Amino acid sequence: MRRFLCWPAFLGRALCALVLLGAVGTVHAAPPKTVLVLGDSLSAAHNIPVDSGWVHLLGDRLAKMEPAWAVVNASISGKTSLSGRDRLPGLLEKVHPAVLVIELGANDGLRGLPLAALRDNLAAMIDAAKKSGARVLLLGIELPVNYGPQYRDGLRAVYADLSREKKVALVPFLLEGVATRPELMQEDGLHPVASAQPQVLDNVWKELEPLLH
Question: From CA 157, how far away is CA 105, in angstroms rounded?
């Protein structure tokens, strides 16, 4: 800590106080740390107002913290894990997040893409984030029952296995408590309505909050 000496003594206490206040006035607050959300339509406020989406609600909650955090939403509807893998290096370089939230894989599953490719893409994103110094939260997803138990169980295992092997936080099912309630889902049966977004945020927050401290 810098020591300010008011000397000679005839400067007086009042002048000394002005000197100290001037010094303090030059100190600037550090910019807030950032949570980067990389996802698909489930995080991009699909077919609902943007300010109703769970990521926007997360930003409101983070802004009230002491010290405050910021959120950057890099989610784009329709994107797959491969797209996220390709985009992530540039995002890490630009945003420098302290925490990366990965919400990808739903579109891989809906298209019946190989689960081994999904696993490789998610693993590469986790490794890149860790190398940059960011902590990682992985958001898992479930598929409709018509995709069959083998594929659905395999998709679920991808997230669980990566969480264990890479030692990253995991929300097993992003839409827990939402997807099974028709009144909380849009007509497509895949995306939550605006009124369900606070519940989605609560699902994320349980695992995200510890990463902020």
Answer: 12
The 3-state DSSP class for residue 171 equals strand
Longest dimension (CA), the chain: 86
C-beta separation of 178 from 185 below 8 A? yes
SS3 content of the chain, % helix, strand, coil (to 5): 50, 15, 35
Phi, psi of 105 (to 5 degrees): 130, -20
Q: What is the pLDDT along the chain (213 residues), one digit of tens a residue?
A: 444 333 344 334 443 333 333 334 444 455 689 999 999 999 999 999 999 999 999 999 999 999 999 999 999 999 999 999 999 999 999 999 999 999 999 999 999 999 999 999 999 999 999 999 999 999 999 999 899 999 999 999 999 999 999 999 999 999 999 999 999 999 999 999 999 999 999 999 999 999 998
Indicate which residues carry an active-site annotation: 41, 188, 191
Tokens describing residue 31: 């910019």
Cα separation, 18 vs 197, in Å, equals 51
Q: Which of 32, 13, 33, 31 is nearest to 21 (CA)?
A: 13
Q: Tokens representing 88?
A: 């992530």
What is the pTM assigned to this prediction? 0.86
Instruction: Calculate helix-pair angle for 54-63, 197-208, nearest 10 degrees.
Output: 50
